[in-house]
Amino acid sequence: MSSKSPILIINGEPHSIFIELLIKSLKKLKNLNRPIILICSNDILKKHSKKFNFKFKINIVNENYSNIKKKKINLINVDYNRFNFSNKKISSYTNTYIQKSFDIALNLTKKKNINCILNGPISKRTFLKGKFRGITEYLAKKTRTKNPVMLIYNKYLSVSPLTTHIPINKVDREIKKNIIINKIMKIDNFYKNILKKRAKIAVTGLNPHCESFEKRNKEKNEIVPAIKFLKKKKIDVNGPFPADTIFLRNNLKKFNVIFGMYHDQVLGPMKTLFGFNAINITLGLPFIRVSPDHGPNIKMLGKNLSDASSLIDSLKFLEKYAN
Question: I need a labelling partner for 184 at 20 to 30 A (CA). Which of 50, 89, 214, 232 fits?
């Protein structure tokens, strides 16, 4: 095996555009210096390879994971024989396949000390079934990780929501000083230790203009005390700033991370500025977990029209920064 940690790729939802995008990405990125281990159905990979004229050499990995090759796609086959390009519906039938794929990946990170995972999209409704808010929380539970951090990363600007996939009327109760501190420290460590640069972090308030509308003032009671504590730790953090102006051009010159209180507060402006030119990174796990910023998009399955930019950026990121 190469001295560099392999990039471990999980197919995710089999009826998605992910394998099409992976093929497009690998055609473009011909000089990756890390082995690739793909956890996927061999049948799915063969059908995509034929449809999209992909002729990369495939190495079937043995049970001991001892035959990893650098210049091949190292395939760990997970049986799934119901795939076809005409199926435009996601069902719970795929859950066993997805569950097994993630279990293999998590086992590999321990057995082979692999420190980076890239996963394709899944359907939250059919796979997670309301038990988890997203794959971030699913992997946190599997690895016994507290307070994982969702970071939507772009080399010019990244955003991170304190709360992720929860209803807006539940956000208020989850804004706590200690959680803000914990998550911002993880972001600062990531920038310092992995990206080798200084994080310049802006924190938004919860209320419009950071004003107080009731006694339970989250800015005064939770956000401001968290920022003061972090400043004492020599972390470059400022705020709280009103969310409606922090994304203005002059403000963005001062920061490379914006930490918000809820999902759409920061992801909406981020996608307006950069489209899907960003990658989803989970911080705080025992490994770096990266996911391209797109969903299954089953309606586009097999049409060869999907943009692989986010997946290409994900692979480039792991190539450069994973240990």
Answer: 214
- How far from 242 is each of 6, 248, 251, 256, CA to CA, in Å? 42, 11, 11, 17
User: What number of other Cβ atoms are within 10 A of residue 93's Cβ?
Assistant: 13
Q: What are the contacts of 133-137 at 24+ separation with CB within 8 A?
A: 133/164, 133/165, 133/166, 134/164, 134/165, 135/282, 135/289, 135/291, 136/164, 136/282, 136/289, 137/164
Residue 165 confidence (pLDDT): 83
CATH of 154-276, one of 3.40.1180.10, 3.40.718.10, 3.40.50.300, 3.40.50.1220: 3.40.718.10
Q: Would the pLDDT of 121 be above 60?
A: yes
Report cis status (omega within 30 of 0) of the bond before 296.
no
Report the DSSP beta bridge partners of residue 10: 39, 119
In terms of phi and psi (left: phi > 0; alpha: psi -120 to 50; beta: otherwise), the region of 256 is alpha
Q: Which residue has the higher pLDDT, 1 or 267?
A: 267
- From the options 3.40.50.1000, 3.90.1150.10, 3.40.718.10, 3.40.50.300, give the CATH code of 1-145+285-323: 3.40.718.10
